[in-house]
Amino acid sequence: MRKPLIDSQVFKQRRDLLAKSMEKNSALVVPAHPELIRNNDVHHPYRQSTNMFYLTGFEEAESVLVFVPDSDKPATLFVRKKDPLKETWDGFLYGVDGAKEAFQVDQTFPIDDLEAELPKLLAERSLLYFSQNHDPDFDQTMNGILKRVRALRGRSGEGNLPIHDSYPLIGEQRLIKSEFEQGELRKACKISSEAHIEVIKATRPGINERALHGLFIKEIMQRGAAREGYGTIVATGNNAVTLHYVFNDCDLQDGDVLLIDAGAEYHYYTGDITRSYPVNGEFTGAQRDLYQAVLQVQKDIIEMIQPGVKFNELQDQTYEKLLDALLQLKILKGDREALLKENAQRKYYPHGVSHYLGSDVHDSGTRKVNGEFRPLEAGMCFTVEPGLYVAANDETAPAEFRGIGIRIEDNILVTPTGHENMTQSCPKEVDDLESLIGSGSDIWAGTVS
Ligand SMILES: [Mn+2]
User: Of 27, 62, 239, 372, which has the highest C-beta tally within 10 A?
Assistant: First the structure.
């Protein structure tokens, strides 16, 4: 017998809160993430869809939540039946009765009955929240169900059940983290930070990017994380100039700066930290200058964060400050205002300064409300991640900066009076990094020539 990952009361409270934002007499349908086949009968590792987990805590595939607040039985879960033979192969299933009890929903049905039962739950409703175009198979199932709903509505004159996308509805709630959620996120950030420190301690020339990636996974799992929150980037030297570098298979060269962007997922919350530092433990003059410039921008932007400030203000300030740094380092030359107007800094900083962070690394919630950038509010969490990336083949940049990519990323919670850096414990000052790099015991002994 397995137990829910966290107290099921949490999910009931989330559903009760969501009910307040839903239109009168509406219904919400949230399906599980589909299983993805790797080959034959072997699947990719399964992770529940974030919205499904957020509202139920239920981690099994082939399940569907139906939530109808204005009814006797608001929360219905469709789940796989218990199946001794299948469980022999793939492990425990809660089943229809087990899921009802463990997850505190009002009723459960076998998933095989979805097409028979769901139309009845929807027929009398005025609006359906459902997000299409994530899973073609489920879209097809829903099309059949909605046809059946229309038939059940008969001559009522109501026609098709209108559909609103459920993502903005749920996203708005996920955007503001409750005290409990802040605690979970803090834990994910702490695990991420500790794992980064272990990786920094184990870094030295000759190690493969992949070995450091493996070490990061070991360190987060040892601390209770289920998995990474996203594909880890371990990029040495010029590889760091590729923003979402995926190969992680090069040897670290003496003299390289290494960029590691990695986060632990704990209880479906994820950290997202990036650190950049010299493989051999000592910044060269040019590496240090570039690094300090990015670090200063990062600190300045974090200092700005408090309720009421707007995202575009953080972004605009990042652009201006990075442009000033590029001018000072003589990577860019010319008239400041003219360069700013043509967004010249984007050549060296092609991404944004921030994204929401939570159960997904790029978490849900809108940046704008009614077309206007929204002010920051207490309980929002997001990254601050300025960077500068100078490609090895950039003939216009001074030679000493070529082949260096720097990004420094922390995870910031907006508090009622300002902000909290949830990844503060991960070192980023030059001196702290230099004394930490390669300082661990030699865990690679005998594996590297
Ligand atoms: Mn990020």
Answer: 27
